Amino acid sequence: MNPSPSTLPVEVRTRLGEELAADLEGVYQALIGRGWTPDAARERARELIVPDAEALGRIAGVHRPLYGRLAARFGDTSVHRGERLALVAVTAVSLILVGAPLLRAELFASPSAFLPPVLLGGSVTIAAVLAKAFHLFVKRPSTLPALRAGLAAPIAAAGLTLLAAFCGALVDTYRFAARVETAAPTGSTEVVAFLGDTAALLAVALAFSLAGALGWFLLLHRVVAAEAAASATPLPPLLSEALP
């Protein structure tokens, strides 16, 4: 895919627009000071300052993200497949790093039946954070709407993971209470085991949810900053035509 002005990252488009707008205004005012009519001055300023399609293409090529230049060597299908496999691999490694200490602590000796769904929800949460971070910082979206695409996924997955854990703990508590009513435990071992399993379930859910919420907050901060920078200096009509 050949670089074009529309593929410029948002922050590059914003900075380029600000610089061209300042130069355009300076030339326009200088021509007005020399006695040019507004229409003639505007047209001449555009000819002098606004780059043509070839120049914009070269600018886009210079500022094209490194990932975009590397991915251009492969087909879109291969690139998307590679991205998905890399995301799965990184998420799996993250899950192993988080779960290994818990396994050594024997918190999963007799896990709750709701632990697998919580682990799945936590993995989806981490994957959503990594996918959006990859989109923002590596692929670098070129339009403002694309900045927020997929941004709600991490916080939604984190909330569902936490909800699943609390619902699971509630169901396990009712089941344990019913079992106790039927046959009272002879010692404290069964009660301690139940409390440990419930604590492990909630701890895992809280860890994943907090990680997802933190990742979502940092990503949101990055998106808001980019949007604010892009809207701080609206482009003049002449530049809006040149920078689609």
TrEMBL record:
Key words of the record: Membrane, Transmembrane, Transmembrane helix
Membrane-traversing stretches: 85-103, 115-138, 150-171, 191-219
Domain of life, source organism: Bacteria
Protein name stated in the entry: Uncharacterized protein
Source organism of the structure: Gaopeijia maritima
